[in-house]
Amino acid sequence: MPEPRDLDTQGLDMSPANLAKLLSVDVEGWRAEIPLIEKHFAQFGDRLPQGMKDEVKGLAERLGTAKH
Question: Cα angle at 41 between 66 and 58, to 5 degrees?
């Protein structure tokens, strides 16, 4: 994720707090979504592309090490 200082916000009427909120990630919210995504994907069985399974696995791994 970019840091606020990495973005050219010149000309935008945006407070630093709003910019920080836009760049934040709700880690706990995404962690709660993982089982729901997996349940949804399970209905497709072997027809679900392996790449989609890999993406969810990678997301779960990244969220496991994400800072709160």
Answer: 25
Q: Do 56 and 41 meet the contact criterion of CB atoms below 8 Å apart? A: yes
Enumerate residues 6+ apart whose C-beta is below 8 A from 31. Answer: 60, 63
All residues at 6 or more sequence positions from 41 whose CB lies less than 8 Å from its CB, including other chains: 48, 52, 53, 56
Percentage above 70 pLDDT, the chain: 94
C-alpha to C-alpha distance for 55 and 68, rounded to whole angstroms: 21
Q: List the chain domain ranges.
A: 4-64
Structure tokens at 1: 């994720």
pLDDT in tens, 34-62: 999 999 999 999 999 999 999 999 999 99
* CB atoms near residue 10 (< 10 Å): 5
